[in-house]
Design a protein that fits this description.
about 525 residues; mainly alpha; three-stranded antiparallel beta sheet; two-stranded antiparallel ribbon; 5 strands; about 60% helix; about 5% strand
């Protein structure tokens, strides 16, 4: 039978055709029409992220480590200790990464895997060891993440409007914008996690579309095999890269692995499988572990190639060459990881901008990445005191309204068993709950940038719900559109208001104070 041809219902399986067709809902638009809105909001996000990307012309927050680590990876393949005067020498140089020599003879012990620093180093390779150079690649990922969020939301909800609004909200969020404009690891981590979610969503659609185009099998105990799953492999690769940025990616590997298995349970139930859970655990779980965990492990180890294929990295010579079925390099790498783990669990030093994860959704203690003030009479801003700051503060609309939207998603999942709400909630919880286990550790609010795309999608879904269903009365739709448009407009206004303190614009001190709505933002 040709693909898409309707099959007459049989007496043995009278609902086969209708059920098969309902497995896959068509997308709202096809071809280039589904790309116009996402590309526009990504363009807006790119303008906000790339305008004056080299400002501040200084190291912002942990750029003092990661910009130099990226340079070290380009030069040596591993992280090397740097001189005390390295910052000044780099800022005074012409940015030529081959000529800059700010390193000592000894390797450095660093506690994060290398992939995120390789990303930062790629920008330095292209544009030099300058503020623009070490921020460039991260800004590219942040801009693409806006496009991906719009496309993911569109596929998740089958709504072009929800996709566009979700992408726009992410483009206007200060937390996402600041980490896109700063050479820190968290935007790279956020990008890889979002990519993994998108791959699993594509896998879900691919399998369901496959079965919507063929006759359903008769009900059985175990059900049919679900076929090849290339997007699962892609998700495993993305999650391996996430772990190769920060180990917190492991939580997403576990959460998303569970998510895709649960989706398979739902599909088997729709296919009439009597023992959906048992069948899935026997048929889907082992391949899921092989494809996702296996590919993630391989990618993670490959990310350490610069350290493994050279001899000078920290701890590289820890294991001797005695006979063992495990190569000395891998045994040394295991020792390295054990030492890094001890560091992470024992990190309790106080920091003036550390925050409790319980406060993240309200954005009560954002992290200041950069601060500069000049009190010298009438300054460049036209006032006696001029200041500039990079404050990793989320857009209040995205975070405050988004937190309410998350509670609404809880209701949708609990009362309606909406799989989309469950997926979004799991993506948020995987990035938040693990930090509740380490409240004594030094933790910063900007760590939550990993799940802000899922908050933006949740809020976009709420905005669409405010507009109302298509069959609602014109008056209901009109007032709904006013309310939904008001939320989006408010997000735009607040992005304009806070943009100067997201991007280190020089402001009179009084204007900076106007933007400090909470004493804990200072």
């Amino acid at each position: 039978m040709a693909a898409g041809t309707q099959q007459a219902p049989s007496r043995e399986h009278p609902q086969a055709t209708a059920t098969a067709a309902s497995l896959f809902a068509p997308l709202p638009s096809v071809g280039w029409r589904g790309w116009i809105g996402p590309i526009i909001v990504a363009f807006i996000g790119g303008i906000l992220r790339f305008t004056n990307l080299g400002r501040p012309d200084a190291f912002a927050f942990d750029e003092v480590y990661y910009a130099k680590d990226g340079l070290s990876l380009l030069r040596y393949g591993f992280e090397q200790q740097f001189d005390d005067s390295a910052n000044d020498l780099i800022l005074a140089s012409d940015g030529n990464w081959r000529a800059i020599d700010v390193f000592k003879a000894d390797p450095a012990f660093v506690v994060h895997p290398p992939f995120g620093k390789w990303v930062i180093g790629s920008g330095e390779f292209l544009f030099g060891v300058t503020p623009f150079g070490w921020r460039f690649a991260v800004a590219v990922l942040g801009t693409i993440a806006v496009l991906m969020t719009a496309r993911i939301a569109r596929r998740l909800t089958r709504s072009d409007l929800v996709g566009i609004v979700a992408g726009l909200l992410l483009a206007l969020d200060g937390m996402h914008l600041v980490t896109s404009r700063t050479a820190v690891l968290d935007m790279v981590l956020s990008f890889t996690i979002l990519a993994a979610f998108g791959c699993l969503l594509l896998d879900r659609d691919q399998v369901r579309r496959r079965w919507s185009l063929r006759p359903l099998p008769p009900p059985s105990q175990w059900g049919p095999p679900l076929g090849s799953r290339p997007w699962r492999w892609a998700a495993g690769i993305a999650l391996g890269l996430a772990c190769a940025v920060k180990w917190s990616g492991l939580w997403y590997l576990a959460a998303f692995g569970l998510l895709t298995v649960i989706w398979d349970v739902g599909l088997r139930r729709r296919l009439g499988v009597a023992n959906a859970w048992s069948a899935t655990l026997l048929r889907s779980a082992p391949p899921a572990i092989l494809t996702m965990v296996g590919s993630a492990v391989v990618v993670y180890v490959l990310s350490w190639s610069g350290w493994l294929l050279t001899e000078g990295g920290w701890g590289r010579q820890w294991a001797d060459d005695t006979a063992s079925w495990i190569p000395a390099g891998l045994r040394s790498l295991w020792h390295y990881h054990a030492e890094a783990w001890r560091f992470h669990v024992g990190l309790e030093s106080d920091h003036s901008y550390q925050s409790n994860p319980m406060s993240w959704f309200m954005q009560t203690r954002p992290t200041s990445f950069y601060w500069n003030s000049a009190d010298n009479g009438t300054g460049t801003c036209g006032a006696d005191t001029c200041v500039s700051e990079v404050l990793a503060l989320g857009n209040p609309v995205v975070w405050w309204f988004g937190s309410v939207a998350l509670l609404w998603q809880v209701w949708r999942w609990a009362a309606r068993r909406d799989w989309r709400s469950g997926a979004l909630l799991l993506a948020v919880l995987a990035g938040w709950v693990p930090w509740l286990l380490y409240l004594d550790r030094t933790i910063f609010t900007f760590y939550c940038v990993v799940f802000v795309p899922f908050i933006a999608i949740s809020l976009a879904m709420a905005v669409a719900a405010i507009v109302g269903p298509r069959d609602a009365s014109p008056e209901r739709r009109r007032w709904g559109a006013v309310g939904a448009g008001g939320i989006v407009l408010l997000a735009v206004v607040l992005a304009w208001w806070f943009y100067p303190i997201w991007t280190a614009e020089t402001l009179p001190y009084a204007q900076w104070q106007w933007r400090m709505w909470m004493p804990t933002w200072v």
